[in-house]
Amino acid sequence: MIKRVKQLMGIVLASTMVVSGNVVVPNICAYAEEENANVQSGTYGTNITWTLENETLTINGAGKLTKIDGIDFPWAESDDIKILNINTGITDIGADVFYNVNNLQEVNLPDGLKSIGDWAFANSDIRRLRIPDSVESIGEYAFSCANCKKIVLPSNLKSVGVNAFSIPNSGCIYLTGNAPEIKDENWVEAPGVVGGSNVTIIYPKGNKTYTEAFKNRFANSYVNWIEEDINDMSLELEKGDAKVQSVSLDVQGKTVESNEDNGGSCNISIKILDYSGDGLMATHVYVYLKSERSNSEIKIMAEYDADTDSYVVDRSNLYDPFSEYIADTDTFRSIIVSGKVWIEKIEVESDSGKTKPLDNGYEEIIPVSSYGIVSKGSDPYVAEKPEDAKYWFNVHRAHAMYFYEPDLTIKSLADNDGEIYHETKNIFVEDGVSAIGMNNIYKANDIDGLKFKRWYCPYFDYMEDDEIYSCSCVLYPEYDRDIIVFDVRFADGQDEIVDIQKTKYEELSEDDFPVIEGYENYNWELRRDTGAIYYFMDVPDNKPDTPLKVKNSSTLSKDKITAAVDAITKAAEKTNVTVSMDNATVISKEILDAVKGKNLDVTFNSKDSSWTINGKDITSDSVDDANILITRDEENAVDSSISGIIGKRSAEKLTFGNSNEFGFKANVNLAVMNGIANNKAVLIQKNENGFAYKSSSNVNSENFNITVDNGNEGYVVYGDNGDLNSDSKIDIRDAMSSLRHVSGREDLDCVREGFADVNFDGNVNIQDLIKEIHVVSGREDNF
User: Fold this and answer.
1) What distance in Å separates the CA atoms of residue 465 and residue 439, rounded to the nearest whole number?
2) In sequence order, what are the residues at sequence separation of 6 or more whose Cβ sits closer than 8 angstroms to the Cβ of residue 26?
3) Among 537, 661, 755, 759, fewest CB within 10 Å belongs to which?
4) Is 548 left (phi over 0), alpha (psi -120 to 50) or beta?
């Protein structure tokens, strides 16, 4: 092979004209330094102007850009040029024009360019290049560049010189037109057109000019030939040299069930055609998913599987959120898929050949990407809408909801996972249920004077009513008042709840805090927790064997207790002793012990009620302080579970300060609820089977009496005596209902039983039936 010897010289001439005799010879080159030292400009010959600024060489002119009289170009072998822009008007680039411009990486050639001469860009650092379709010939060694990754040759190319391209870096050459003629008449041997290794050459599918003889002339190195549809060629320089060949989605078009018990799964397998030879090692494949409900884009890197020669996304649990790294902010974000999920696009990232310097002295590779066709059609290549998607599946997402409700009877948090709440229900709900919608799925009961309002999740702060549940949650009920728990904790790890108050937290004062006998010098410390508000008292001793004793501020003073005991002791049997409770609500044990066993009535007058207890009715062997506070709720009093039996009657809810057995029977006098014109009040109370009739009373002078022996939740229902059917009249239907009940043919509910007890003795028997018949038949005017 003949080797060409290159003679290089740099000539800088003065900008004035040289005069010899009568002949004026013009300078070929002229230079100018602008005020900015980084800008140079000048002319070459009569038709070329050039400017070098910020490592960019711009050439303007008309006609041919060729050497004149062997004089080098002003930019010859410059190391300062990285970008070259040749503007429209230049028709030919001659030999050696940019030879040895070592740092030149980016070249932009004009439309209308016809030819590129021998060695024109040899030994430059071009990385990616598109040659305009107007170019018809390329000379030998024209692009002998060590780092070039991609060259797109023009569709009108007719001839190419030997060794025109040297691409040893697993690059790609795209031939877009007919096979060009190979000019090699000056060569003794017939070398190939391409020098290098692992080069991929892509030529148009079905073009008959690409014969085996032609391909053999490119065989100077290892060449991988690919016949490709011209429309599928990645001709854009800033796109990668790869494409998606096939996609396999194992749940294509199916619905995947996803919840905590069954996470659901999907597998995506992608075959890639990589044009850049052995560039698979430098290729990254990313799958972009979109979820219909979240409308978020999820970018997932696929893993290469050597066994199947494919890239795989294997998601074994679709219930867990996808975690995506955000490089811009160096953070992760969680995205939950639900509803229709589809592949929006598949990105194949390749090595561009370009690099950028890092602060540590190394260089970072700048990648380029191409996108696989995942929509139903071929254009666009991205399925932005679910209806356009070719690859999709549905995720039916359900969440486990754990409902926790309070138990106000527990005595220790140590026995109940550290709180008064316990799980009462566990259900799966559809994805997309709102916080307020959860109330329709399951509603908590009103308890102990607390009216249920809504569910909330304390672990996600406070959820607004329209906020959507998108994961499993532990839900707690919110009531119209707060639950305040006072708990004493001991050194041995045991504890004892000494008081549970139901009030609005902002209305709580230190006067409401319980005082524990023997622990008067300790303080309560606040800790807001899941559903309740906890106050803790930590003491250094172990828990005592006997329950703690609360010094309740609602107990009468010591001198008043002494006075009451003295009056009871001195009173004769079958008489009455009156004790004024003032603001106190607790009858002390000393008073109850004094009256126990005596046929003596003691009436305790408080602000809202009057309790009368006979000593013979104290049945407990060991009485304790009795809290006689009664809270009356006239608004929305009726619990949904008994609203059917109360019907249209007026009712009010009674909540007792002492929720246990009193140890005695008492007659309680209360004021009538506002606006009541009925003549009877019926008390029903809760028991293990629901609600039961307890006692009843005439309504006289805006007062009535009830008989109680425990503090269970209760209701006072107002109506007319003998009116079982709540129709504001006493007729044959009431009598027939009473008859069927007395004869054993019909059971009355607790409310109707109370109004059938016309004799107020706590039972419905033949005497009540006869009385009912007499009134209905007109033999008696009233009860």
Assistant:
1) 10
2) 17, 46
3) 661
4) beta
